[in-house]
Amino acid sequence: MTTATRAYVSRLAGLTVFDPNGDRVGKVRDVVAALRVGTAAPRVLGLVVEVVARRRIFVPMGRVTGIDPSSVMLASGTINLKRFEQRAGETLVLGELLDRAVTIAESGRKATVVDAGMEQTRTGDWLLTRLAVQEPGRLGRRGQLHTLNWDEVLGLALSEEDQGTETLLATYRELNAADLAHALQELPIKRRHEVAEALDDERLADVLGELPEDEQITILGTLSESRAADVLEEMDPDDAADLLAELSNVDRDRLLELMEPDEAEPVRQLLAYSEDTAGGIMTSEPVILSPDATIAEALARVRDPELTPALASQVYVCRPPSATPTGRYLGLAHIQRLLREPPSSLVSGALDDLDPLTPEAPLAEVTRYFATYNLVAAPVVDQQGRLVGAVSVDDVLDHLLPDDWRDRARRG
């Protein structure tokens, strides 16, 4: 392995960290540096490494023996698994330094930090010696990119004002919603809200669904009411209902009024049920087919990438209308069985006659139902025989676990 003595921080993000035995320790999530007075290059203190259970720990740079394009190697010794907590005077390079507005000393032009280069000195210390900065572009084009020495850039010693998010979001682009939610929680509060504001509605909706309820409420409260309504429309109806249930009646009603009527109606229906019943934890948007639908149509519907694996495991056959609450519920068909039937056959010929749940079924009954029939999703049918939704196993687990289970997972 060729060991680098220079590295750009954005390229370190996501690299796998190995111990001397070649065992995987975790992944690099950020770099910690100490800014200095004046124009002296900051000292790199260490790496923030994400290990098992999404715990983020601090690894001092003195433990790093090698950096290459695909991995980081550590020296032998015990790793401190204490959760990383940022101290006064420390700066997260990815989380806080990127997207900072600066001034190029020579020209006086404004620019934005898009990357930072660190270099190992003869004494073995690592310093942030280089900065990649980009000038504003015109007519939608990117401006000129400069790679400068640290002391050729002004403004980093000042508190950040109107900090952008483009570069930081680029480092998060490949993260799934759960990992991005976790990364968001590790940022300072001000930076967290800036990133949330910059995410598009769909991405933010996915991330909110992975955050603890108090974090959801805080972030939603930083958005304008119209933007908050747009984000709620992008959320799964059951997640949106859970979030709105935590708000005051006034705030809840105002946001529901701002939502599109066809998006708000399923959420209103879910809010009518107690949160510890099948109706309170179900989604109102399972895969619903008419009796004359073919197996080929069913298989095409469950290929939708927006469906969770649990909801894609079966389809529900009902008489029109096909939106919940539907016409009379006829039964469900498991995708595993449909895969063994001719594509031209009707789904209604492969139905399971399993009794559905009722909306009032308590959580304990729902849990027993899933365990008894080895299901990952189950239909919920009202007294009129109409399908009103489906409960998936992830919804059940979410309500069985303690309210702070996401925080516990983050803390390890």
Automatic annotation (TrEMBL):
InterPro entries according to UniProt: CBS_dom (IPR000644), CBS_dom_sf (IPR046342), Mg_transptr_MgtE_intracell_dom (IPR006668), MgtE_N_sf (IPR038076), MgtE_transporter (IPR006669), PRC-brl_dom (IPR027275), PRC_barrel-like_sf (IPR011033), SH3_actinomycetes (IPR058838)
PROSITE patterns: CBS
Pfam families in UniProt: CBS, MgtE_N, PRC, SH3_actinomycetes
Keywords: CBS domain
One GO MF term attached to the UniProt entry: magnesium ion transmembrane transporter activity
GO cellular component, one term: membrane
Domain of life: Bacteria
Recorded coiled-coil stretches: none
Domain CBS: 282-348, 350-408
Protein name: Mg/Co/Ni transporter MgtE
Highest classification ranks of the organism: Bacteria, Bacillati, Actinomycetota, Actinomycetes, Geodermatophilales
